[in-house]
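--- STAGE predict ---
source: upstream dedup step, 1 unique chain passed
mode: sequence only
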Amino acid sequence: MLSVCRTKIYFRYFPTLSPRECHSTSTIFIRKNKPLKDPLSAFRWQGFKLEEYLIGQPIGKGCSAAVYEAAIPLSSNYQSSEDSKPLEGKSPDPQWDHGSVIQAAEAKPIQTNPQRAAFPLAIKMMWNISAGSSSEAILSTMRQELVPASGSALSGEYGAVACHRRPVFGKKRLEPHPNIIQVIRAFTSSVPLLPGAYVDYPDVLPLSLNPSGIGHSRTLFLVMKNYPCTLRQYLSERNSDAHLSTLMILQLLEGVDHLVRHGISHRDLKSDNILVELDSAGCPWLVITDFGCCLADENIGLRLPFTSWYVDRGGNGCLMAPEVVTAIPGPGVLIDYSKADAWAVGAIAYEILGLCNPFYGQGRSSLESRSYQEDQLPALPDTVPFDVKRVVKMLLQRDPNKRLSARVAANVLHLSLWGENILVPKSLNLDKMTGWLLHQSAATLLMDGLVDRSRVETKMKTCFLANLEYEDLWEAAFLLLSWRNHSV
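--- STAGE serialize ---
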């Protein structure tokens, strides 16, 4: 009965498909396109001080930070553990300093971590070498890390009253999205001595902890949800079928499109910077993280003035889009990042589809984004759906003008996954497209209300309907039909 009523509502308000109706449909779903529940939602005024957390074992480290599992002891999720101790502002017991703890943690199977339920949070401690020790300088220097921060994440720095908060210099505000990490707490604090510090990152410790250290005594801490593994770890342990692989690529495209809509480019997309958990049906849920290299300047948007070689073009040179890596600095030169992350998704798709990333290899099999030609790209397995093969190929076009945008590429996969009945004829039918959208809208509303909201497929359909635009939808549909007609 509920499904019938909602279908009648949609036919009443959206009898034909037009730009106006597309906008009306997307407006309904925008408010439903939210991330999962904040693990600290029950502790609204807690978690803004490092001393409130129980710090567990290392999760991993990169070139600018270390990440640890964490919990707030008063949380119902917390269970005492002999392997973790509360942070007390002093050097921990020498037994804590396990030299190979990170490597050991990475070697564990994805679903066999008995401590994860006890530590629902992850704390990222930035290494502060050049920002100084004042909170204002730290927040300004590391502002890119704050791009995915929630509206209340910095309340501990600026006070609980919203009017007393000051903006972080030049930082764009990114609305929450299911496929983007959300920083739920951000604060500055003195650098503690954490497990593995002397072995894994002794040089960046402050003098008070290491006489040879070059780090400052205070730094930035970011609190996020604790995810089981990275995409690289997930793919190394299991082979996904064609449907799940398509859903994973689709999630990355939805996340990148969300960034582009907010004038942000990640600029360091790779399987190590994508986190994974499983939804209630066992489908991998992907979340883009680590925004330290992102372009998020409110004054320039996605077009970066490239006046000298000293301008930062982003991280991960192997997956740097051709238009970025081949740019030559000069007066008036701009690098357009609007499709750079979409190109990186095309490269990562090879990993998701069970092959080596062609831009990571060695020897003759290795390609360089600076010089490769499209016909050098490795063929994808026969088990990969035809539409997915075409999307990956179009994402890896050297010329950004010929490359698919993340939005159109995502729409192609949405139509391929859910809209087969409207693609059977050789020409598009407006009435069928309208009916299909109405059916998808009603079904998604019903599923969102009655089924576990952590289901990836439901969230992806919500993303599609929330970002529905007339031109992008028809471009995707015509592309699909033209590919299929030419393949016959």
